[in-house]
Amino acid sequence: MKITIVGAGAWGTTLATLARENGHEVILWSRSSATSLQAAIAGSQAIVSAISMKGVRSIVQQLQTIGLGTETILVSATKGLDPNSGTATALPKLPSQLWQAAFPDNPVVVLSGPNLSKEIQQGLPAATVVASDRPAAATQVQTLFSSPRFRVYTNDDPLGVELGGALKNVMAIAVGTCDGLNLGTNAKSGLITRGLAEMIRIGVHWGAKADTFYGLSGMGDLMATCSSVLSRNYQVGYGLAQGQTLTEILAHLEGTAEGVNTTQVLLQVAQHQGIELPIAEQVYGLIQGQITPQEAIAALMSRVSKPER
To answer: In degrees rounded to 5, what are phi and psi of residue 72?
Structure first.
């Protein structure tokens, strides 16, 4: 197949390498490319979006202007929430929902999982999930990237898979803060476990399947993001615990920490919908500079005792 990957950052470059290893023709395009987007997608049977959340709307609009055949598969590999679509009565859009709204007749597939780009680039084994409400499209994308070092599973809950990838970034900021304060393994384990419960709570409210969050795009991605210094969101939390400002941290990151924007959008959802998200609330206070890391920990530890479930 001919594939166009939009976004030449670490993740887009990694996906391009995986597809090329499988013998596919791959065009890697970014805003700095010498060719136009129209030329880059010409003849492509699949277009993979591997850009940050803030760039999705712009690319969607450009492709609408260019026009796509309805047989073109659109693959969303972005993890985040759209900050411009949520209201008091409507939930914010996920990347794949922006794609589907713009191209209602095209198959849209979500790609998400515990995929730290640098490890995959080193040839280390990894696994991911592709999800769609069109099983044939998910299976086709599965064959694009599957290899002996990159195992790809399919899933029929694209909403849950996509939410898992977005929400775990918020929890990674919390866990990075925990490690930055040297609070120990017990605290970190408790925080990750309760973070997963929070992800499931918001996911089920959104309409996703609870079981999806126990898979690669939920628990799997959460474990990877919360246990590796390669995670940009983990680095944000760790830096905040070390007394750095958010501006200082973001200025030195290699790429985008999507959890910062996701936390802000998520808190708006929680407030409008009346959903209890204590960890996300403390992360929001941290990134806004409203509380210290020590105050965030104290607030979580002093919550009213309750049953685990």
So the answer is: -70, 130
Flag whether 188 is in a domain.
yes
- Residues 15 and 128 placed together within one structural domain of the fold: yes
Query: Would you state the structure tokens that stand for residue 37, as one six-digit string?
Result: 């987007």
Question: E strand or H helix at 54, and its extent?
Answer: helix 53-66
- Which of 93, 168, 188, 306 is catalytic? The answer is 168
DSSP 256: -
- C-alpha 232 chain-centroid distance: 12
Domain total in the chain: 2
Residues pairing with 128 in the sheet: 152
Question: Which domain range does residue 273 map to?
Answer: 159-301
Choose among 196, 159, 219, 213: nearest CA to 309.
196
Q: First vs last Cα of the chain: how many Å apart?
A: 47
188 is catalytic: no
Retrieve residue 271's tokens.
């407030």
- DSSP, residue by residue, 237-260: HHHHHTT--HHHHHHT-SS--HHH
pLDDT in tens, 175-216: 999 999 999 999 999 999 999 999 999 999 999 999 999 999
| pLDDT value of position 239 | 96
Model-wide pTM > 0.90 = yes
The CA-based dihedral angle spanning residues 172, 176, 179, 183, taken in that order and rounded to the nearest 10 degrees: -70
